[in-house]
Design brief:
- The structure holds 3 protein chains of 3 kinds.
- Chain B has 8 helices and 2 strands; from the N terminus they run H-H-H-H-H-H-H-E-E-H.
- Chain B is mostly helical.
- Chain B has one domain.
- In chain B, strands 1-2 form a two-stranded antiparallel ribbon.
- In chain B, strand 1 and strand 2 form a beta hairpin.
- In chain B, helix 3 runs parallel beside helix 6.
- The longest helix of chain B is centred in the C-terminal third of the chain and has 31 residues.
- Chain C is built from 3 helices and 5 strands.
- In chain C, strand 3 and strand 4 form a beta hairpin.
- Chain C is elongated, with a radius of gyration of 24 Å.
- Chains in contact: A-B, A-C, B-C.
Chain lengths: 200, 192, 191
């Protein structure tokens, strides 16, 4: 039941992009078309879950016992960079078509603050391994949802007439703001869900 | 290399927020007040100056194919050093900026600048570039923070001067960040 | 100086050297800053306790960590900082946006001397006002009240004014205060 709460909360109530401001660069950069958005979301989901799993294990079984917590930032980012590198190599061999489709996006996932952000957050929130993985998975879905919905809006926006000053990033950001406002409507849902599921 | 030009470049022509549009995550997240925006900008500038300098010093010793991991290790080290210093001597800042200090590691500005400038220029020029870009970033963040704080909390740097009833709460919340930045960019576009 | 070429040996060597050098720098800095960091944490807690006990100087005589089961059989953890004036109790509930951690100062009779929010994820401008709303002289003042009968918001028939448009946060806050009181009284009974 806790897992359901984490799932709903991470996707709607505390959406990683629209509420927590993580993953903005790909959100603004990749969301021009729906199919690239879906591809990027899938790639991010894969990296995010894997990265959270590995970094959680590294933190719990390496950094903490050896009193090396201060190496967290450097260790985590190296894990993420290596994972992305590995995925690139594997993808190239296993599915060259997908590799081509993702193109430049794959190495960019390394600098996606959402991936590092989630890895650090689950440690800060002192989540156990199961909850951490669920959180990472749900966050990735939330990321994908925000990205795809936004791409849908942008595809429509491209067909409309926008005042010259607002063209480009300006209108994109204001639109993102309105989407963020819409998602704010979900606040408190986790509190109610918590009571409904008898977790309180 | 005219050093003054490098600085002017970082603030105006290559302004990371309004022109290059890099480092958006901390820009939106930490500008809930002018003070927070300023702190984040300065923190990023500190890291950028150090990483640009060190990476430029090392550029001839870094084989091309392994440069990204090397850059990342250097950047991560300086960010961790900054984290330690802030936790030890500026706990208020630590509380306000929270997660976003370690996230400086993945701030595209730092890696981007290392690739675009430090890897190709002298250490001193790279250091100055760090100052320029850092100042550009800090100015952008502080400006955004000032606007959001005035509209959302009726204050600037903590000094309240608009009665609470006229505060538009939206601006210190998530949507306000997007909307404010959007309009600021529109204004910058118009002025170009 | 010509750039080093990307042979495997060079790459491994450089990366390892860089990693080792950086590691050493970090270890050194960590040594340097670990004491100040620990001191900051202690100071923050000490300041918090002084503030809620309304005292300029405070020595904590005993720290107890109580684990009690609430009416739903869920374990609640309270940290009680006993001192000469009474005790500062740390209590946690679920607020509107996340965990709400409150530190409440009680005198020996259980009367509230002061409080502070240690951790919260409430909405700024709404629930986040809880850090000031229930203080002395404010609309929802609870200072001087004794939760022998649990404190509730006026909507629920109680004496405390809830934060405008933030009933859930207000309820969660009062629940934390009431729980803290019960934990303290419980502990006094066992002494």
């Amino acid at each position: 039941m806790e897992y359901l709460l984490i799932f709903i909360s991470a996707i709607f109530v505390n959406n990683i992009v629209l509420a927590q401001f993580l993953g903005i660069c790909p959100f603004l950069g990749v969301s021009k078309k729906i199919d690239t958005s879906l591809g990027m979301s899938a790639a991010v989901a894969f990296v995010m879950v894997l990265a959270t799993l590995v970094t959680w294990l590294v933190q719990t079984y390496v950094l903490v016992p050896a009193h090396l917590e201060y190496l967290q930032t450097i260790a985590f980012i190296l894990v993420i960079a290596s994972l992305v590198q590995m995925i690139e190599i594997i993808l190239k061999k296993v599915s060259p078509a997908l590799y081509q489709a993702l193109g430049i996006f794959l190495p960019l996932i390394t600098t996606n603050c959402a991936v590092l952000g989630v890895a650090i957050l689950v440690i800060q929130k002192e989540m156990n391994l199961g909850h951490s993985i669920m959180y990472a998975f749900s966050t990735a879905i939330g990321f994908g949802l925000a990205l795809t919905v936004f791409a849908g809006i942008r595809e429509q926006l491209a067909l409309t007439d926008i005042p010259k000053g607002m063209r480009g990033m300006a209108i994109v950001l204001v639109t993102a703001g309105l989407l963020s406002l819409a998602f704010m409507g979900f606040s408190g849902v986790d509190g109610g869900l918590r009571i409904l599921l008898g977790l309180d | 290399m005219n050093y003054l030009n490098i600085i002017k470049n970082g603030i105006v022509k290559d302004n990371p927020t309004f022109v290059l549009m890099l480092g958006m995550c901390p820009t939106l997240a930490t500008t809930t007040s002018a003070g927070n925006g300023l702190a984040m900008g300065l923190a990023t500038m500190a890291v950028l100056m150090c990483t640009n300098f060190v990476i430029s010093c090392m550029k001839n010793l870094t084989p091309d194919k392994v440069r990204i991991p090397v850059f990342i290790v250097v950047i991560a080290t300086f960010v961790t050093l900054l984290q330690m210093a802030i936790k030890a001597y500026l706990p208020q800042v630590d509380k306000e900026l929270g997660l976003f200090i370690p996230l400086i590691v993945v701030n595209c500005i730092i890696l981007g600048r290392a690739e675009a400038f430090a890897a190709k220029n002298s250490p001193v020029a790279s250091l100055i570039d760090g100052v320029g870009i850092g100042l550009g970033f800090t100015l952008a963040l502080t400006l955004l923070g000032i606007v959001r704080e005035i509209l959302g909390a009726g204050a600037v740097f903590g000094y309240a001067f608009i009665p609470e009833d006229y505060n538009i709460l939206l601006f210190v919340l998530a949507p306000g960040a997007f909307i404010t930045l959007g309009y600021l960019i529109a204004i910058v576009n118009k002025l170009k | 100086m010509k750039k080093l070429d990307s042979s495997l040996l060079n790459m491994v060597l450089v990366l390892t050297c860089v990693a080792v050098v950086m590691g050493v720098i970090l270890a050194f800095m960590n040594n340097l800053t670990s004491t100040p960091i620990a001191q900051q944490k202690e100071k923050a807690l000490a300041d918090g306790i002084k503030m809620v006990m309304q005292a300029d100087d405070m020595t904590v005589s005993r720290i107890d960590t109580l684990r009690l089961l609430d009416n739903k059989n869920k374990e609640q953890v309270f940290v009680v900082y006993n001192n000469e004036k009474g005790a500062a109790v740390e209590s946690t509930t679920n607020g509107f946006g996340g965990k709400l951690r409150v530190l409440v100062g009680f005198d020996t009779e259980g009367t509230i001397l002061g409080y502070t929010l240690l951790e919260h994820s409430e909405t700024p401008g709404l629930g986040a006002k809880a850090d000031k709303w229930f203080q002395e002289g404010e609309k929802g003042c609870i200072i001087g009240m004794t939760p022998s009968t649990p404190l509730t918001v006026s909507k629920d028939g109680g004496q405390v004014d809830a934060i405008t448009a933030s009933t859930i946060t207000s309820r969660a806050f009062l629940l934390a205060v009431n729980n803290a009181y019960n934990a303290y009284i419980n502990q006094k009974k066992e002494d």
